[in-house]
Design goal:
The chain has one helix and 13 strands. The protein has one helix spanning 146-149, and strands spanning 14-19, 23-26, 31-34, 43-45, 54-63, 67-72, 89-92, 97-98, 117-123, 128-133, 136-143, 153-158, 164-168. By secondary structure, it is mainly beta. The protein has one domain (14-168): Jelly Rolls, CATH 2.60.120.920. Strands 2-3-13-5-9-10-11 form a seven-stranded antiparallel sheet, with no helix packed on it. Strands 1-4-12-6-7-8 form a six-stranded antiparallel sheet, with no helix packed on it. β2 (23-26) and β3 form a beta hairpin.
Length: 174
């Protein structure tokens, strides 16, 4: 896994206590699969991203394309809706952005599909959130004080039954 200079690779998995019952966790809680097709449902990471640092993680799309990927505050842990539908979450959503809305957002980047790798670059020094698709940086998606002032968590939200993702973890090279 290659990652941007100056970014930390957080070690985390999806938190069963903060994952919708409409999602199934597997592979050491690194994979998430939707078991129900009625609306978005969220899974939240089990480790806090602390202000003052830069973090990077990657998500592989196993199935589907209408999956929201990003970060949220601990107040944004709504399991049976998308974490980014309220003011506590920020996400990329297949060629668009989502924050405090379940239906509209600015165009951003390109659409993704099964097999694509989505990189999440959270800069909690400058308050910026950026994404990459298959290693291609899509630019700054969000820039605001909240992204540098409060602890945040990784988050994903698929919509359709059997949609799935895998959290790719860094392996230290010897």
């Amino acid at each position: 896994m290659e990652y941007p200079d100056g970014y930390l690779l957080p070690l985390f998995s999806w938190d069963p206590k903060r994952t919708s019952t409409k999602l199934k966790l597997c592979q050491d809680q690194l994979q998430v699969m939707a078991t129900d097709g009625s609306g978005f449902k969220s899974a939240i990471g089990d480790q806090e991203f602390t202000p003052g640092y830069k973090y990077y993680y990657e998500i592989k799309i196993l199935k589907g394309s209408l999956i929201k990927i990003g970060v949220c505050t601990k107040n944004g842990l709504f399991q049976d809706q998308a974490f980014s539908d309220n003011e506590e979450g920020w996400a990329i959503y297949n060629g668009e952005l989502r924050h405090n809305s379940n239906s509209s957002g600015n165009k951003y980047g390109k659409q993704y599909k099964k097999g694509d790798i989505i990189g999440v670059m959270l800069n909690m020094i400058d308050g910026q959130l950026s994404f990459s698709i298959n290693g291609e940086n899509q630019g700054i998606a969000f820039e605001c004080n909240e992204l540098k002032e409060v602890p945040l968590y990784a988050a994903i939200a698929p919509i359709y039954k059997e949609d799935g993702i895998e959290l790719l973890m860094a392996v230290r090279e010897d």
